[in-house]
Amino acid sequence: NAGVTQTPKFRVLKTGQSMTLLCAQDMNHEYMYWYRQDPGMGLRLIHYSVGEGTTAKGEVPDGYNVSRLKKQNFLLGLESAAPSQTSVYFCASSGLFLAEQYFGPGTRLTVT
Amino acid sequence: AQSVTQLDSQVPVFEEAPVELRCNYSSSVSVYLFWYVQYPNQGLQLLLKYLSGSTLVESINGFEAEFNKSQTSFHLRKPSVHISDTAEYFCAVYGGGADGLTFGKGTHLIIQP
After folding, report:
1. Which residue, B54, B56, B53, B37, is CA-closest to B104?
2. Around B5, how many Cα atoms within 13 Å sit in the side-chain half-sphere?
3. Which terminal residue of chain B, N or C, has fewer Cβ atoms less than 10 Å from its own Cβ?
């Protein structure tokens, strides 16, 4: 039981490049979330999903897209990376009790 | 909507001294409250939570937090800190809805020998 995993752990992009971050969970959770963490800002919600095939915007969705084609996976895409997207990205999932979230180990992304 | 305020961005404390990390929240509905800890270069781990019942909750490593509804606070305390407690601590609130938790900006606990 791996819980929540994220791929990759680190990535460096040039401005304008694209990439996809993968989050996978093996707990059969319906709800999944993408956050970004910046110094002094805490965690801010980018997008979330309430089930397979559904997604919704969070607090800071601009510049990101997401997809939830399979229940266990939640993908976060950057179509044209910008230096402002340099951050640590965390994925989380929750089951029926929405308040209890399980976090992945994070992806450190640097955009130069 | 909910909001969380962590009043101190950084708290330096000497080893074996007591510490309190402050957290206040605002919400128009009943909430669940959480403290998460993030050790250097790691992800978030749940430290403790208040869901209902006793307003004083404890973690396995000596931290405790008290839910105070009248003051809308959920301060985290430890009577004697250790070097290994050096970490970032996040307070979070859940007030219902599918968009999950609202986090504070974090408090960096720095333990000085």
Report:
1. B37
2. 8
3. C
> Environment class of residue B5 by beta-carbon count within 10 Å: exposed (0-12), middle (13-18) or buried (19+)?
middle
The alpha carbons of chain B give a radius of gyration, in whole angstroms, of: 14
What amino acid is encoded at B57 in this protein? Answer: V
User: Which of B72, B78, B1, B97 lies closest to B37 in space, CA to CA?
Assistant: B78
Tokens of A66: 């997401």
Convert the pLDDT of each residue in A58-102 to its tens digit: 999 999 999 999 999 999 999 999 999 999 999 999 987 777 899
Q: Name which of B101, B102, B107, B108 to mutate to probe chain A: the one with the most chain A Cβ atoms within 10 A of its Cβ.
A: B101
Residues in chain A: 112
Residues of B in contact with A48 (CB under 8 A): 98-100
Q: Partners of B67 in the beta sheet?
A: B74
Task: List, as ranges, residues 74-103 from B with C-beta within 8 Å of A.
Answer: 90, 94, 97-101, 103
Q: Say which DSSP state A84 is in.
A: G
Q: What is the pLDDT along chain B (113 residues), one digit of tens a residue?
A: 889 999 999 999 999 999 999 999 998 888 899 999 999 888 899 999 998 888 888 888 899 999 999 999 999 999 999 999 999 999 999 988 888 899 999 999 999 98
Asked whether B13 and B68 are in contact (CB, 8 A), the reply is no
